[in-house]
Structures are given as structure tokens and as C-alpha cells.
Design brief:
This protein has one helix at 2-15. It is elongated and about 80 Å long. It contains 1 helix and no strands. By secondary structure, it is mainly α.
């Protein structure tokens, strides 16, 4: 029982060390660039979903057209 107690105490002592990595910033030229891909969306962009499944037979509007409430799209 004593061994278990001492082992537990040692475990707590050695596991609580501060292992934080220290960083020292310096002023220099940029040596790396990061590139990423993604999608750019408008602030007022809206995504519509159909309530039923099926095949689109006719598209009534083209990209960029204005739409009012109740106007059929597809």
C-alpha cells in the first residue's frame, strides 16, 4: 500500500511540470506565404432547396436575374 502511495505522489510531482514553449518574435522580412482555396459568398446570397425530388424540365431565369416573391424559378 505504501508503494502505491509513493508512486502516486511521484506521479503528481513529475507530471505537473510547466512544458510551455516560449516564442521570441523578431522583426524581419516575410519568408513564407500561405495559400488556401474556398468559396466567396455574397452577404445577401440565398440558397434555396426544393421540397420534393424530381427532374428539372425548364429553367425560367438565368444567373443574375432579379426575383420577386412568388416568381417561379424552375
Amino acid at each position: 500500500m505504501n508503494r502505491l502511495f509513493y508512486l502516486t505522489i511521484l506521479l503528481f510531482i513529475f507530471s505537473c511540470k510547466n512544458k510551455a514553449t516560449k516564442v521570441k518574435p523578431i522583426i524581419s522580412t516575410i519568408t513564407e506565404s500561405v495559400y488556401a482555396s474556398g468559396f466567396l459568398k455574397s452577404n445577401q446570397q440565398y440558397q434555396a432547396f426544393a421540397t420534393v425530388n424530381g427532374i428539372i424540365e425548364t429553367i425560367y431565369l438565368k444567373e443574375g436575374d432579379s426575383v420577386k416573391v412568388g416568381t417561379p424559378i424552375l
